[in-house]
Amino acid sequence: MSQPLIWMPTLDLRQMPDPLATWTAKRFLQSHAGIGHIVASGQSVIDGPSIEVSDPSPGLHWYCTQARKVPKKLRPLDVSVAVPVPTGALDPILHVLESAKAAGPIRRLVLYRPPQIALSRIVVSINTLLDTITPSIWIDAASFGWNAVSYLIAASDQIQVHGVSDQDLWRLSQIAQWLNRRLVLQDLSPRPPRVLPPPLQWSHAKDPAKVLKTLPVWERSR
Amino acid sequence: MRMPELRAGANLDIIPVGRLTTTPYCWAGCAFCRLARPLPKVRMTDAPAGLTLAHLAARGVNLDQTAQIRLRGGLSLREPFDYWIHFLRHLRAQYQGRLIAFSPVEIWQFHVLERRSLRDLLHLLKWAGVDLLGPGGSETWTPELRARWTPHRLEPNEWLSVAEAARQVGLGFSMAPIIGAHMGETEWNEYVAVILQHDPQELEVKPLNSEGTRWAAHDSASILETVAAIQRLREATPSLPLYVCWDEQPLDDAAAIFAAAGADGLLTSVWEVTPA
Ligand code: SF4
Fold first, then answer.
1. Whose CA is closest to B221, among A150, A13, A181?
2. What is the CA angle B254-B258-B259, rounded to 5?
C-alpha cells in the first residue's frame, strides 16, 4: 500500500480578531481530536500543536504568500509557501518561491489554481515544481475542484490535498478507498497520525429471492 | 491505478442533450432510478397523462441548442404506442439533430401490452425518424445484481431480442453500464462479454448518481471510477463510439480527463422536460 492520504483540517485565523480567534481555535481542535492545523497572522496568543504565522516571527513556522525579505536575525525559518500555480518561466510567483527559499527550507508548498488555466498546463507546472522545488505538493481543494484533485492524487502519490472541509471529507475518503490508500488525520506536528475508517463497502444480494420479498409494499402490490 | 496522460488541447466533443420524459412514473421501481416514482394500484388507463408537445412549447425550449434529443420514460404509461409515434414524428419535423427514443425496456412493454411484433414497433419508430434506441435496461447482466437493482424489469434475453430486432430493421441500439461500486470483476467481465457478442452501435458510460433514488445511502460514482470504466471499455472495444454522461459543471477538467482515458464525447443535459 502506498503513502497514506492525509486529511489535515485547517483553520485560517488571519482575519479573525483575537478573543474570538482563541475561542474558535479551541473549538476547532476539540472537534478534530486535538489534531488540526492553524494559520494565524502573527505572534499570537493562540495555542495549538501545529501553527503557522503569516508574519515571520522567530521560532514559528512562516506561512509565506508573497515575496518578502526576512531580516537576518529571524533566519532560518521553516517556511510554507502558499501561492497560485506558476504558469511559465517568467511568472512572478517564482519570485515568491525564491524569497521564501532565502528565508529557510521550504517545508511545504501549497498551490492554488488560477482561474481559466487548463488542467494539462497545471500538470506540467506541478511536475516541474516536484522536480525542482519540493518532493511533495499540497493542492487547494476549493480552487482546483474535485475532478482535478482526484486526477492529480491518482496520478502521483507526492500530492496531498489542502483545505478539505469536514463536509468534504467523504470525497477524500472515497478517493482513498478507490486508490486503496489509507486515510489519516494528521497535522504538521510530530504526533502520530490517526487512521480514519473507510466507507462502507457495497455488497451483493446474498439471496436474491429474499430481496424480492423485502421490496417496499408498492412494488409488491403490482 | 494508472492515470492517462493529459495532452494539451486534446478535448473530446461536448454534446448538448435535450431530455424528454414521457412520464415520471414507473412500476418497475429499479433501485438506481430517479423515475421510479411509485404508482400503487393504479390502472394503466388511470395513470397521469404523459408528455405532450404543448409541454415543450410551454417550457420554451430551444431545440436547436442540442445535438441530440433523448426520449425516455417510466413504464406507467397511459398513452398507447401510436401516440408516441405521432409525437416523435412531429418532433422530427421540427428537429434536425439526432433523435434517440425509448429503449428495449419500453418497447418490450408495448410488445406485451399491445400484442404487436417487435419488428412492427421498431419499424414504426424508424418511420417516425428515430435514429437509435436508447440503452435503458442494459445496466446489469449478472443475476445477483439484477435481483438487487432491477428485479421487475424485462429479462436479459428479452432485452437482447429487442436489440437484435432493432438491428434487423436498421435501427441501432446502444448499451450503457452504470458505474459504481457494484461493478466488480464478475459484473465487468459479463458486461464486456455481452458487448463483444452483440455489438451495439455505441456505448455510454453512466456514473451512478444515487441522489434521490432508493440507493441514496450509497455513494455516487466518483470520477476515478468513471475513468477506470472508460479505460476498460476502450481496451475491450477500441473502435466503438464511447460517450460519457456527465452533467456536473464546469465540464472542462472532466472533459480533458475523459478524453485522455479514451472517450469520444461527453453527453451533457442542457434542458429536460417532464410532465408535471
Ligand atoms: S424500468 Fe427504467 S424507468 Fe422504470 S424504474 Fe427501471 S430504470 Fe427507471
1. A150
2. 115
The pLDDT assigned to A34 comes to 94
Q: Structure pTM?
A: 0.91
Region of residue B140 (phi > 0: left; psi between -120 and 50: alpha; otherwise: beta): beta
- Give chain A's contact residues with B (Cβ, < 8 Å): 118-121, 123, 145-148, 150-151, 154-155, 170-171, 174-175, 178-179, 199-202, 204-205, 208-209, 211-212, 215-219, 221-222
Q: What percent of chain A lies above the pLDDT cut of 90?
A: 64
Give the residue-averaged pLDDT of B127-155.
91
Q: What ipTM does the predicted assembly reach?
A: 0.89
Q: Which of A118, A121, A199 sits opposite B219 (nearest CB)?
A: A199
Domain-wise residue ranges, chain A: 5-219
Q: Which three cell numbers stand for residue B186?
A: 464478475
Is domain B13-273 in CATH 3.20.20.70, yes or no? Answer: yes
* Domain range A5-219, CATH architecture: Alpha-Beta Barrel (3.20)
Partners of A11 in beta bridges: A38
List, for residues A202-216, the tens digit of each pLDDT value: 665 555 555 555 554
What is the pLDDT confidence band of residue B87, given thresholds at 50, 70 and 90? very high
Residue B218 has pLDDT above 70, yes or no: no
Average pLDDT over residues A150-154: 96
The span from the CA of B44 to the CA of B75, in Å, is 9
Q: How large a percentage of chain B has pLDDT more than 90?
A: 72
Which residues in chain B have their CB less than 8 angstroms from residue A175's CB? 222, 224
Q: How far is the CA of A65 from the centre of ligand 1 (A)?
A: 53
B49 CA: distance to closest CA in chain A (Å): 20
Contacts of A171 in chain B (CB under 8 A): 222
